[in-house]
Design brief:
heterodimer, A: alpha/beta, Aconitase, domain 4, seven-stranded mixed sheet, B: alpha/beta, Aconitase, domain 3, 32% helix
């Protein structure tokens, strides 16, 4: 997994609540059996005017000039500013894969749907919860200033605005540690293989019907 | 000290260890796999040279991509080449790793959340996960079940555990008696309307009260299925005799002495009388009428006798923006009567409403009637091969086809339109599925979520009608 320590990048504001994972990456693109290549179809139905198809070259498609990601001032954006309940809906990890593949490293919102939030951490993408007031402030500042960049310092758990103002955020220690070191959870969990075996032994004695039934 | 909730008990029973940072490693008894969210997980195992921790904890079936039209030609004849690769990849992965899979034309194949309980693969008291958010369905059996992402699918395959955090507890109590024509789907849509699409975020919901005690397992599964549409990953119903009767005799359910021991253990799968919930929502069953969603989020729902909302009645600017955007996408006017919404297609199916009772409800409404002329297509897609077989044994397929509805092979179908069943741009659909998001059922498609009875009534009328009127007549 990609490490995340400090990141600075252009912020792009997506001003709508309850952005669902169907919107982030529509279902026709979930047919891929790979983890990569979803970037051109991120927000497909908002970004383009036609219906997107899997395995299509997107370079010649008619784009929705009004959609925020298509505005030249946000070219190369890597921090997505969003509204409440971002990532609601399905469990598809294709949503963070698409955000990552597009070039986003972080999403900032007042709240996230849980499965999406979890999935981000598995892919080196940092979801940051700030208060409604702070998010409002960022929306206002980004609209007023072309080239507006945010710096995210994971070690200090702060988002730094161009004026130097800092907004702090919470993150679980475990998730922070994994992101900072690019650690794969499976390897970490397997360090506790003895605990898992001990649990299984107890469970097999108490509930033998849960073992060897599905073959 | 206060007692424990059902969720607390299930969580504690499966705790392998608490990590130093407060995260928990919990043991997963069952994982259900399908073709969309598993290929990258299997690929991850191969790249790392890992084997599944336990083969016998997994069960698989393809559902999202499978065609629901005649498909005796098998996987090779799936027309969409990308869908075909995905279904074949699941077959190959399950064969390679020795995981039990009900392949596309196996009679036991079906939508994961229909197939797994039907087979007894999900039992009361288990922890169960699947790379699909509607895994919440399985909470109806008193199982701790929720959706996970693909990295977690790989993690569970490799370790049989999940790294998680304990959720908070919410009780949603619905007491009293439901009116005639008011179904479990209406109950859950009403609940979502009350608590909102993010109202359950961070919580495990337990559905309690008279209405759920008197509900069948199929109905409970419909309710638990949509807990995620209220933001909650988990939607539990306490175990009672209805649960036990449902599980008994299913292929992977315990037998003989083990059955007796299991039933004894399952008696404890209820919240203690003195358990404390972090949040309690109380609803009176008599207040629930048949529901119809008008917008692009499941919380945008009203009773069939009500009007499409008017944004000028809303104070919160983010909500006003959401209502205006939804009205535009849906092609509706503020204050329009729900019963004036004209429909183009009808979809009866999905992991929410494709079980035998759902099909019976719909058949009762369409029997001896004809689908309205303006309906381009009305699909009935059973949830599994076994549901299909049962329905045919009861003659429901004939009732549907004589009324002008299409009778299909099992799969997810038009719920998310990954297979060829989809809406055209601008078309309105009365759908028994679970999500009315923009584009969900097809690019530009307009979804209205309803119960099977309401969908069937709409198919006959060509627009929404109060099914209670039709049941009376």
């Amino acid at each position: 997994m990609k490490k995340f320590n400090q990141h600075s990048g252009i912020a792009v504001p997506l001003d709508r609540a309850n952005v669902d994972t169907d919107m982030i990456i529509p279902k026709q693109f979930l047919k891929s059996i790979k983890r990569s290549g979803f970037g051109p179809n991120l927000f497909d139905e908002l970004r383009y005017l036609d219906e997107g198809l899997p395995d299509q070259d997107c370079s010649g498609r008619p784009v929705n000039e009004e959609f925020v990601l298509n505005l030249p001032r946000y070219n190369g954006a890597s921090v997505l500013l969003a509204r409440e309940n971002f990532g609601c809906g399905s469990s598809r990890e294709h949503a963070p894969w698409a955000l990552d593949d597009y070039g986003f490293r972080s999403v900032i919102a007042p709240s996230f749907a849980e499965i999406f939030y979890n999935n981000c951490f598995k892919n080196g993408l940092l979801p940051i919860v700030l208060s409604e007031a702070e998010v409002d402030q960022l929306f206002t500042e980004v609209a007023a200033n072309e080239g507006y960049e945010l710096t995210i310092d994971l070690e200090r758990q702060v988002v730094v605005t161009p004026s130097g103002a800092e907004m702090s955020f919470e993150i679980d220690d475990f998730r922070k540690h994994c992101l900072q070191n690019g650690l794969d959870d499976i390897g970490l969990t397997l360090q506790h293989a003895d605990d898992i075996r001990a649990y299984e032994e107890k469970a097999r004695a108490a509930s033998p019907w849960l073992f060897d039934a599905i073959r | 000290m206060a007692g424990k909730t059902l969720y607390d008990k299930l969580f504690e029973q499966h705790l392998v260890r608490m990590n130093e940072d407060g995260s928990a490693l919990i043991y997963i008894d069952r994982q259900v796999l399908h073709e969309v969210t598993s290929p990258q997980a299997f690929e991850g195992l191969r790249i790392a040279g890992r084997q599944p921790w336990r083969i016998d904890a997994n069960i698989a079936t393809p559902d999202h991509n499978v065609p629901t039209t005649e498909r005796s030609g098998g996987v090779e004849e799936i027309v969409d080449p990308v869908s075909k690769i995905q279904v074949k990849t699941l077959d190959e992965n399950c064969d390679d790793f020795g995981i039990l899979e009900f392949k596309m034309n196996d009679q036991r194949q079906g939508i994961v959340h229909v197939m797994a309980p039907e087979q007894g693969a999900i039992l009361p008291g288990v922890t169960a996960v699947c790379g699909d958010s509607h895994t919440a369905t399985l909470g109806a059996l008193g199982a701790l079940a929720h959706g996970i992402g693909t990295s977690e699918v790989e993690h569970v395959l490799a370790t049989q555990c999940l790294i998680t955090k304990k959720m908070k507890n919410m009780l949603v109590r619905v007491d009293g008696e439901l009116g005639i024509g008011v179904t479990p789907k209406d109950v859950i849509l009403h609940i979502i309307g009350v608590i909102g699409t993010a109202g359950g975020t961070g919580y495990a919901i337990e559905f309690g009260g008279d209405v759920f005690r008197n509900m069948t397992m199929e109905g409970r599964m419909t309710v638990s299925n949509m807990a995620i549409e209220a933001g909650a990953r988990v939607g539990l119903v306490a175990v009672d005799q209805t649960t036990i009767d449902y599980v008994e005799g299913r292929p992977f359910a315990p037998k003989g002495e083990q059955w007796d021991a299991a039933v004894t253990a399952w008696q404890d799968l209820v919240s203690d009388a003195d358990a404390e919930f972090d949040a309690v929502v109380e609803i009176n069953a008599a207040d629930i009428e048949p529901q119809v969603t008008w917008g692009t989020s499941p919380e945008m729902v009203v009773g069939v006798s009500e009007l499409v909302p008017n944004p000028s009645n809303e104070a919160d600017p983010v909500k006003v923006d959401g209502i205006e955007r939804a009205l535009k996408y849906m092609g509706l006017e503020a204050d329009q009567k729900i019963t004036d919404i004209q429909l183009d297609r009808v979809f009866i199916g999905s992991c929410t409403n494709s079980r035998i009772e759902d099909l019976r409800d719909a058949a009762k409404v369409v029997e001896g009637r004809k689908v309205a002329g303006n309906i381009i297509q009305a699909l009935v897609v059973p949830g599994s091969g076994l549901v299909k077989e049962q329905a045919e044994a009861e003659g429901l397929d004939k009732i549907f086809t004589e009324a002008g509805l299409e009778w299909r092979e099992p799969g997810c179908s038009m719920c998310l339109a990954m297979n060829p069943d989809k809406l055209g741009a601008g078309e309105h659909c009365a759908s028994t599925s679970n999500r009315n998001f923009e584009g969900r059922q097809g690019f530009g498609g307009r979804t209205h979520l309803v119960s099977p009875a309401m969908a069937a009534a709409a198919a006959i009328a060509g627009h929404f009608v109060d099914v209670r009127e039709m049941v009376k007549a």
